[in-house]
Design a protein that fits this description.
About 30% of the residues lie in helices and about 15% in strands. It is of the alpha+beta class.
Length: about 170
């Protein structure tokens, strides 16, 4: 019993520091993976380990997205990679938010991969970008999600706190 109390006292202060270092190492490793990323994915900004901006392009001849470049914002918590990053599209003068049935006009993306149920720690920034590229590539509907205006006007939640219901297998 004495040894267990002593170990608890010795290890508790070390744990948060260890976890923060592990998180920093993991995010830094993810950055090096993205530096050699696939065609159509590039880093726009990664000045710290809490937020990155990535540019993606759809590489096929989909007329909805042809010639466009879109900007994604990744926000990492100290729990990454156990917890999914918050990923949204950003609007910039030369970077529109894509029109897609799972992308709201404020940039919030309804994609199971980004939610608690669909996320896996083996995912990376590159694999998320590729999944979003694929989502856009496969789309043939030039429309926003149903209720987009109402959702954008009323939503006050962070994307990570929205409980989407994933039921559209047609997009």
């Amino acid at each position: 019993m004495f040894a267990s109390k002593r170990l608890k006292k010795a290890h508790i202060p070390i744990l948060p520091s260890f976890c923060q270092k592990a998180h920093t190492i993991f995010v830094a490793h993810a950055l090096t993976d993205v530096l050699g990323a696939r065609k159509g994915i590039s880093i726009a900004s990664a000045s710290d380990l809490q937020e990155w901006q990535m540019d993606i392009q759809v590489l096929d001849d989909n007329p909805i997205y042809k010639g466009e470049t879109y900007r994604l914002r990744f926000k990492f918590t100290g729990s990454y990679p156990i917890e999914a990053p918050e990923v949204t599209f950003l609007r910039a003068p030369d970077r529109p938010i894509p029109v897609h049935p799972h992308v709201y006009s404020n940039g919030i993306i309804c994609l199971d991969l980004l939610g608690n149920q669909g996320w896996s720690p083996v995912q990376s920034v590159e694999s998320v970008c590729m999944s979003i590229q694929s989502m856009l590539t496969g789309n043939s509907k030039n429309e926003r999600p149903p209720g987009d205006e109402e959702f954008v006007r009323r939503n006050t939640l962070s994307p990570r706190n929205i409980n989407f219901y994933y039921d559209d297998a047609t997009v």
